[in-house]
Amino acid sequence: MNIKLLPREKVFRDPVHNYIHVQHQVILDLINTPEFQRLRRIKQLGVADYVFQGAEHTRFTHSLGVYEITRQICDNFAVNYPTQTPGDGLWDDNERLVALCAALLHDIGHGPYSHTFEHIFDTDHEAITRRILTDPSTKVNAVLREVAPDFPEKVASVIAHTYPNPQVVQMISSQIDADRMDYLLRDAYFTGTKYGEFDLTRILRVMRPYRGGIGFDANGMHAVEDYIVGRFQMYQQVYFHPVSRSMEMILTHLLERAKTLYEAGKFDTRFNPRLLIPFFEHQFNLQDYLRLDDGVLNTYFTYWLDYPDLVLQDLASRFLSRRPLKSVAFTTQTARLLPQLKALVAEAGFDPAYYTAENDSFDLPYDQYDPSVADPKTQIEIIQRDGTLEELSTLSPLVAAISGKAIGDKRFYFPKVMLSKKADDLFAGTYARFQTYILNDSLIDPR
Question: Residues in domain HD (predicted)?
Answer without folding.
Answer: 59-184
